Amino acid sequence: MKHLENRVAVVTGAGSGIGRALAEKLAEKGCQLALSDVNDTGLQETAKACGTATVKTYHLDVSDRDAIYAHAEEVARDFGQVNLVINNAGVALSASVREMTDEDFQWIMDIDFWGVAHGTRAFLPHLIDSGDGHVVNVSSVFGLIGVPKQSAYNSAKFAVRGFTEALRQEMAIEEQPVAVSCVHPGGIRTNIARSARMGKSENADAQREGFDKLAMTTPEKAAEIIIRGILKNESRILVGPDAWGIDAINRALGAGYQSLVARFSKKSLYGA
């Protein structure tokens, strides 16, 4: 995909954060947009921010498999084709393995992993039919390294990474006209941490304040990086200097990174 003009782009989680910024940047590039979220108010604000671009909005809960497949068919009918799908919708959970509930674990996996997997599978036939498709799945730097109290989030984001990297290889081997990219944002200045679920012993205010201090990249800058990566057909799109740093440490130290993360987490997450 060398350009985006008149391409039909699908963005989930478009009501705020990276999703909204992506919608605005894609509109500037001339895309027609199919935007979805569970936050209808935020979604309408995003649509207005896209100016004169062709935009249709859809209420979509990505944890609902049947709704995702119905959404894919509806978008294909509304626009006649689908060229780009960005599975961006996500949530956060901070809790230790011992404290997190089964319900919270299921909640984050249904949205952060199954939402991506079903979103990819539902739209894949339409992307192939377009003759020039691209699927972009948003993982995280927590899809590169494990972090204490993020086991559930790690599970989802590592799964997204593995799923997406396998799909990219399949598309290449099968000579299908679909490019595949996995996005690994670092700390982005969005509300994901403020809306995160917390374990019963977590100091929610302290964690959210800590995230705000570490968030190095604006959603607008993140969107620019992601779109540049799409146009370059990058397999792994690292977003933010912290993402590049974490990736480098992981490559250099292998499993040895864990001792560094443990020392940092002992102070920042456990107050020890």
TrEMBL record:
<dbReference type="GO" id="GO:0016491">
    <property type="term" value="F:oxidoreductase activity"/>
</dbReference>
<dbReference type="InterPro" id="IPR002347">
    <property type="entry name" value="SDR_fam"/>
</dbReference>
<feature type="domain" description="Ketoreductase">
    <location>
        <begin position="7"/>
        <end position="191"/>
    </location>
</feature>
<protein>
    <submittedName>
        <fullName>Acetoin dehydrogenase</fullName>
    </submittedName>
</protein>
<dbReference type="Pfam" id="PF00106">
    <property type="entry name" value="adh_short"/>
</dbReference>
<dbReference type="InterPro" id="IPR036291">
    <property type="entry name" value="NAD(P)-bd_dom_sf"/>
</dbReference>
<keyword id="KW-0560">Oxidoreductase</keyword>
<dbReference type="InterPro" id="IPR020904">
    <property type="entry name" value="Sc_DH/Rdtase_CS"/>
</dbReference>
<dbReference type="InterPro" id="IPR057326">
    <property type="entry name" value="KR_dom"/>
</dbReference>
<comment type="similarity">
    <text>Belongs to the short-chain dehydrogenases/reductases (SDR) family.</text>
</comment>
<dbReference type="GO" id="GO:0016020">
    <property type="term" value="C:membrane"/>
</dbReference>
